[in-house]
Task: structure prediction
Amino acid sequence: MATHFGKEGVVKAGGTGIGELTGYTLETTADVVEDTQLSDSTKTFVAGRTSFSGTLEMSYDETDSPQQTLTAGTSISFVLGPEGDGSGDEIFSGSGIVTGMSVNVGLDAITTRSVTFQGTGALTRGTA
Result:
C-alpha cells in the first residue's frame, strides 16, 4: 500500500504551479435519484449526474501570478496532483469557476489565502 506526504502535492492553474500552497481539498459528488415503484417494499435509487468542487489553501503571496488570477467569478483550468506531477503520478484535471477568495490575517500568524471553486464539466483522472 502506497502512502504519500502532503508535501508531495501540487496544484497548477492555467498550466502554472501555484506558489506557497499549503493544502487543498477535492470533493466529488453524485446525485441520487429515487426510482422506487409503487409495488416495491423498499426504496431503490439510481446514480445521477456527478459534480466536483474544491478548496485551495495557500500562504498569501502578492507576487505569485497564479494566486493573483484566482478571483471570484474567474474561470480556471487546473491540475491537482496528490502525489506530485512526475511521470506516472496520479493527477486530476478539469475546469472550474472560482466561487470565492478570502484573505485571512491574524495577529502573530502567517497571512493566508483560501480559494473555493466549483467544477464545470467532467473531472478527468489520469497520470502525469
